[in-house]
Input
Amino acid sequence: MKTFFVKLSVIVLIILVFSDTKVFASKKIDTKITNDTIATKIQFSIINSFPLATVSTESKPNNWFDISKLNNLVIMIVFSIIVLYFIRHARKGGVIKLRKIKGLDAVEEALGRATEMGKPVLFVHGLSSMGSVSTIAAVNILGRIAKRVAEYETSLKVVNNDPIVMSVSQEVVKEAYFEVGRPDAYREENTFLVAAEQFPYVAAVSGIMNRERPAANFYMGFFYAESLLLAETGAATGAIQIAGTDSYTQLPFFITTCDYTLMGEELYAASAYLSKEPLLLGSLRAQDIGKGILIIVLIAGTALATFGVEFITKIFNAH
Output
C-alpha cells in the first residue's frame, strides 16, 4: 500500500510540473523505490513543440569599426592636428598672442612689493583635493611664484588643508628653488598643514595674516564659504591680494575684496601665461581655436535647425 501511494505521488508531481507546457514528449522513467528513499530518473525526448520565441542562429560578422561613430574620430583627428600644429609653431619661435590678464601681470608687482618691504608672501590653497582641476592649476601657479620668490630672496609660506596637496606643494617649491640655483634658501617648514576642516582652516590662516602681515596674498583653487572671511582678513592687513578660482559662487566675494581675480579658465591658463613655455602656449592657443570653432558651429546649427535643417546635429551626434 505504501508503494502504491509513493508511485501515485510521483505521477501527480510530474503532471503538475508539465501541465502548462505545449510539449508532446516520449517519457522513459526508471524508478527505483526502497523503504526509505526514492530515486527517480526522467528522460524526455521532445518530438514536437511550439516555441515561445524564435532564436536566430545566423552568426554576425565581427565589426572592427563602428561606422556610426566615424564623426567622433574625424573631430578628434581635426582637433589633434590643431593642437600639434600650434605646439610646433610655438617651438619654432612663432609668436602666439595671448589676451592680457591683469591679475597675472600683477604677480610681479606683488612679489616686488613683498621684497621691498621685507615681508613674506602667503599662498593659500583652496579646500579641494589633489584630484581637482583647480588644485592642479593652483600647484602650477605656485611653482611659477616660487621661482620668482627664490630669485628675489623673499620668504614664501604655503598653507594647506590636505596632506597630499601639502606634499605635492613641498616638492613643487623645492624644485623651483633648485631650478634657480638656490637650494640653500628652501625651507620645508614654510609649506605646512594648517587644519583639515573648513573653519578651523580659516581661523588658522587668518591668525597667520594678522601676526605676520604678509605683503602679498594669493588665493588659488576651489573655495567655499571661507573665501570672504579669508579675503576680508587679508584686505584688513593691507596686503596685495590676487585670487583665482573656478567656483562661480565665490567669484563675487573675491572680486569685491581682492585687487585682482582670475575667473574660471583664466586660472587654468595662468601656468602657460606665466611660464611662456612653447608646449603650454601651443596647447592653450589650440584650445582657444577649438572653442571658437565650436561656438561658430553652435550658432550655425541653431540657425539651421530653426528652419528644419538638422544635418549639423547629426554630424556632432555622439551616438
